[in-house]
Structure prediction request, 75 residues.
Amino acid sequence: MRPISVPVDDANYRSLKTLAERSGKPVTELIREAIAEYLASREGSGSLFDLAPHLSGELFQPWRREDLLDEMLEP
Prediction:
């Protein structure tokens, strides 16, 4: 592993310390996990179909991939 130094404001650091105490993990481990999650969320996100659907309620009507593409391409 390579050490890095990142300035963090006091409020965020206090929040990290509190979260670390609750989880029983050191702050550095929480930061490593957050970085890993962030990078994983950015990899391969070139398509809408790579994203997980947002649960926003009941679906009024079923849709097909072609319907979504047609709607996205409408002028």
